[in-house]
Amino acid sequence: MGKLPSFILCSVVNGGSHLSNFYTFSSSSNTIAIHIEALSKKPMSVRGKGGKDDRFDNVNDALILFNKMIDKYPKPSIVEFNKLLGAIGRMKHYAIVVSMYRRIDLLGVSCDVYSLNILINCFCQLGRIDFGFSVLGKMLKLGVEPDVVTFSTLINGLCNQSKIFEAVSMLDEMTERGYQPNLFVCSTILKGLCKSDNTDRSVRFLRLMEGRGFQPNIVAYSTVIDCLCKNGLVKEALDLFSEMKDKGIRPDMVTLVA
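Structure tokens predicted for Pentacotripeptide-repeat region of PRORP domain-containing protein:
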């Protein structure tokens, strides 16, 4: 197992204090309490699509089911809560998921890697990558092993905040732990490097993708070619364009415009 980068170690050491911050964040965001209180005053049936508990017509249906679940004794397993958290996350109600997680945690229901990954994704979508790393710190303290989804979600969150070098460090940590990043993760980092006009590193990362067994697609090549052109490296861009065609990758409109 590889050595954790310094910014991850900081999250582990400070995990407790950061987690208290996101509890404050989630308790101050009382969206779920308002929804549940309002819904409890009027009848409404829970209408899942296709007979599945993890798909709903709207967030209100999911909130009603959550209210029923937390009143049950014994409490449902974390697997059942995960279905609900995942469904609401897919509806993009990220703050509600954070509030739900806090309620589940206070009930003493043990979370697993899946539920913690959902929470990390919600924090990343809310622009709070710092809280996402605090959740990673909590995972490590609890002995819950992060998986490929954990690292991929954090890498995407870092790229969205233009923290590209931290994202590359996360990618290194991910591979050292034996997890193979997918093409989407690599493409996300490549796009971030190009947005930061780091042309040399963009080309090196493209080669790194090939070295790790990924065949860069038209999007990856177009991204780097566009970056080279914008930085006046036309010859290098044309060479890469020729290389792409030699590999049988047909250029699209984006590549030709670049």
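Confidence is low (pLDDT under 50) at residues 25-54, 254-258.
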